Amino acid sequence: MDNNQKNQMVCFEQIKYSHQANNKKTFKLGPFSLNIEQGELLAILGPSGSGKTTLLRLIAGLAYPNEGVITVDQKIVFDRHTLISPENRQVGMMFQDHALFPHLSVRKNILFGIHKWPKDKQKKRLEELMSLLELEGYLGRYPHELSGGQQQRVALARTLAQNPKVVLLDEPLSNIDADLRMSLAQELRDVLKKTKTTSVWVTHDQTEALDLSDRILVINEGRVEQLDKPWNIYNEPKTRFVADFVGTAVFINGELKDNHIITEIGSIQCPPCLKNSKHLDLMLRPDDIRVTLDETGMGTICKHQFWGSVQLYSVKLPSGQQLLTTQPSHTTWPIGKKVSIVLEPKTVIAFPV
Q: What number of other Cβ atoms are within 10 A of residue 90's Cβ?
């Protein structure tokens, strides 16, 4: 076994999964292969119904593929001849609603999965988790007596109690107030990294995924669109779907001439990989264009949104196409004002039409 295999905590090999829903429509996931490394935090992004939670269920053993092989810590947990039950996979799962037992105290919730351990081992593990998650003073309380953030820490403590090889998190912060979400997310990440726990995190919050994960898996309609580092997912999307889904972007029509993409607002050198395509859609993030007030400019301010630290302006071109640009929050440009536009993309991303 080489070092790469030793570092693989979860491995999917040519996984295919299908399921017929109540409306008789068949959902399909795969075929795809995926390796998750020891200690890695992998975030999964995708639209509702794309297969994010299904992927977690396949790892946990709550759903089974039609084809393929799944290994956890180099042990086969699913193939044509093997089916390891969820409780024997050394995989913990933290649900969206935390799923704490309301009639049990914090202490009993945490110890629930290890209540058959010797008492001295239970006590030692409880003390470790209390210190790790700052739960001293809460052991006698019940879930309804805790804040959302405290409930989250208790749920994580219960998940970590059995020392799982992998922790699966299904939108663990969706019920937390927005002003606390990012700090709690960072706290969760710190704990998982401190314990060197491999984790797979499903979220709808793109900022959360970009900020916290080591890599992001983007899926759509059961297909893997891209698996990459957060910076690459945002700045170098491999498919039109990823470019459109992750972050804010618009696409402007372009035509390839003399190794340049010619657009309504200017030209830019074309990447070598696209030089066989005549018509292209150029992706532009709000910070890929420089916009200034100019009565002779070709663009017209047609809409704006106040985002707190920045203003997002929509700029209408003569063709009717609209671009987006961000400006400092104190910038106030009236609707109808003319602006000039200069292309300044950090990376040239375009897709054949």
A: 15
Q: CA-to-CA distance for 9 and 17, rounded, in angstroms?
A: 21
**Over the stretch 123-175, which tens digit does the pLDDT of each residue have?**
999 999 999 998 888 999 999 999 888 888 899 999 999 999 999 999 887 77
- Sheet with strand 350-352: strands edge to edge: 266-269, 260-263, 250-257, 279-284, 350-352
Helix H or strand E encompassing 128:
helix 119-133
Coil, helix or strand for 150?
helix
pLDDT of residue 45: 97
With beta carbons less than 8 A apart as the criterion, state whether 84 and 73 touch.
Answer: no
Domain residue limits, the chain: 3-90+164-244, 248-352
Q: Which fold has domain 248-352?
A: OB fold (Dihydrolipoamide Acetyltransferase, E2P) (2.40.50)
Pairing status of strand 338-343 against strand 8-20:
unpaired
The whole-angstrom separation of Cα 90 and Cα 299 is 58
- CATH superfamily of the domain spanning 3-90+164-244: P-loop containing nucleotide triphosphate hydrolases (3.40.50.300)
pLDDT value at 1 more than 80: no
- Write the Ramachandran bin of 72: left for phi over 0, alpha for psi from -120 to 50, otherwise beta: beta
Q: What is the pLDDT of residue 2?
A: 53
Selection from 59, 37, 45 nearest residue 224 by Cα = 45
CA distances (Å), 165 to each of 130, 197, 199, 213, in order? 20, 6, 9, 18
Rounded to whole angstroms, the Cα distance separating 308 from 43 reads: 27
Q: Closest Cα partner for 166 from 201, 141, 142, 136? A: 201
DSSP state of 214: S
Work out the burial of residue 319: count CB atoms within 10 Å of its CB; fewer than 13 is exposed, 13-18 middle, 19 or more buried: exposed
Residue carrying structure tokens 């007596």: 145
